[in-house]
Structures are given as C-alpha cells and as structure tokens.
Write a structure and sequence with these properties.
The chain is built from eleven helices and 14 strands. By secondary structure, it is α/β, with parallel strands linked by helices. The protein has two domains: 3-217, P-loop containing nucleotide triphosphate hydrolases (Rossmann fold); 222-286, 2-Layer Sandwich (Alpha-Beta Plaits), CATH 3.30.70.
Length: 303
C-alpha cells in the first residue's frame, strides 16, 4: 500500500460555489503531509470530508487502499478545529471520559497517554486554565487514544507561542518516527511546517494546484540562473557541450535553470547567444520557502 489517503476529484459545494473543487490528493504511508492554503481555501472542509464529518458533493476517497470508508475510519485520529474539552475537568478526567466512551478497558491507558503527550505533571489543574499549547496537546491525546495509523490535524500550532509550537512540533516528529503514524497537517506557519513536513499540497480557492516532496521544494528554492529560451533542448545541449555545465534542469517548456557558475552568468549568456540560442530572459533567482509558497498562493497575508 503506497498511499494512506488518496482522493480523486473530491468536491464540496455550498449553493453554487465549490469550496473544494476536484481535489486529487496523495498522502504516502509514513509521510508528514503539509497542507497549505489561505484562510477559506478549503483546507478544513477537505479534512472534514476525509474524516467523515461532511459529505462530498462529488469525487472519491480511498483510505488505506480501500473505499470501505466506515471500516477504515476507525484507524484515523482527528483534531479538526478546536478540541472538545471539559474545562472544569483535569486532563486525566477528560481522558478518562474518552477511555470509557471508546470502551478501552485498560485503565492505565490514561496515564500512559498523558505521559506520552507531556501532560503527566498537570495534576488537579483544570483544563480551562491550560495554555493554548497544553490544550492542543490534549486534543492530540484524544485523537491518539485509538492508536490510529493516520492522524489529521487542522492548524494544531495556530495561536501558539514559540515554546508551544516547539512542543507540538517535537510531538509530531515523535509520533511519526516512533509510532510510524502518517500525518496530514494544515498550518499557516510555513517556516514551522517546513521543519516537520516530508511532502506538501498547496490549495488555492478550493483547487489543489500542486503536490511535491520536501526535496523537490528545496530544489525549487535553490539559487540559480533562470533562462527563458526559444528552444530549451538546444540550450541544454550547448550548456553541456560548450560550457561543460551539467548541474541544470528543464522544469518546463522554454525554461532552463542553471545551478552552477552563478558568478559568471555573463559568459554563460554570451556562449549561448553565440551558438544561436534565442534568449528571452536571463536572471538570477532563488527565494526562501515562505516566499515560494506566497508566489504559489498568489501573495497576500492570510496564508
């Protein structure tokens, strides 16, 4: 089984508007999939459909290679929107309610879960007095109680201070590496997401515009000389034969990106031009991860 989650053409319509439009997502087993989009782009609605909390208008969902969704959803843990907690209860009392509702007979499961998420020292402190980070860890603890193979987290670090963000980040890495849990996580904090994600999906106005791995992302953000040319194959041949440049790629028709000899782009341009390569544009480029995502999302602040 290559994919834990696979959707084809998944669509959710409210009135005449598709808030999720023909989304085909592929979440690989063992990955941490970062789901990125502006507010209102459709992230939460998509997650709710996968979790069975909203019905699709069209399209299909496969979980663990199966379309028997009710059977497979017992293997999912979810934290979508705010965790449902009893404010006047302690962390242990909240998890005790969850343990009983799930029919888990092992009473020490509560203590073990509190220890795992780093809340074993909260004692008699009421949940209403918890920090935002502690409440998020409580929500993740509830999502983990059935020992899921797949965890869906909607904005788990939103509104947290730096210490809270680090705590959640460390917990997610621990879940992924020690328990082999595949994670689908949405977040507005792109710099933090890049510290845990192995794969990404970018959604804009309900449309999933791209999926790529962390390695592909790093390649795209590398500093390079970008050449917009009339014939990319001819340009590639000249780079290899006359300049002995091999560290380049052709990401799309008419574009060549050169990753070496960036200190002498004038010579590169001259040799290409003398060989008859039609150069329309030539410039140095490269940006940080957040800048790259902002370009994909069309700019703006509500990422």
């Amino acid at each position: 089984m290559e994919y834990i989650l696979k959707t084809e053409g998944l669509t959710k319509r409210y009135g005449k508007h598709n808030v999720v439009n023909q989304v085909s997502m592929h979440v690989k087993k063992g990955s941490i999939y970062g789901f990125i989009g502006k507010n209102g782009a459709g992230k939460t609605t998509f997650m709710r459909m996968v979790a069975g909390l909203a019905a699709p208008f069209a399209g299909t969902i496969e979980l663990f290679g199966s379309k028997e969704l009710e059977k497979q959803r017992v293997r999912i843990g979810c934290l979508i929107e705010q965790p449902g907690l009893y404010g006047n209860m302690t962390a242990g009392e909240n998890l005790e309610v969850v343990r009983r509702s799930l029919g888990i007979t092992e009473k020490k499961a509560v203590e073990e879960m509190l220890d795992f998420v780093g809340l074993s020292d909260t004692g008699k402190k009421k949940v209403k007095n918890f920090s935002m980070g502690m409440k998020q860890r409580m929500g993740i603890a509830i999502a983990l109680f059935r020992n899921p193979d797949f965890l869906i987290l909607d904005e788990p670090i939103n509104g947290l201070d730096p210490e809270g963000i680090k705590e959640i980040r460390d917990l997610l890495l621990k879940l992924n590496r020690e328990k082999d849990i595949t994670i689908l996580i949405s977040s507005h904090i792109l710099g933090e997401l890049s510290k845990v994600a192995t794969h990404y999906g970018v959604i804009r106005e309900g449309n999933l515009i791209e999926e790529f791995s962390t390695e592909e992302l790093r390649m795209r953000c590398r500093r390079c000389q970008k050449l917009v040319v009339e014939d990319e194959k001819f340009a590639a041949n000249i780079l290899e034969e006359r300049l002995h440049i091999t560290n380049f790629d052709v990401p799309e028709q008419g574009v060549v990106r050169v990753f070496e000899r960036l200190e002498d782009t004038v010579k590169t341009n001259r040799v290409l031009a003398e060989a008859g390569v039609g150069i329309r544009e030539s410039y140095l480029t490269g940006q940080d991860l957040e800048g790259y995502f902002m370009d994909l999302l069309g700019g703006g602040a509500n990422v």
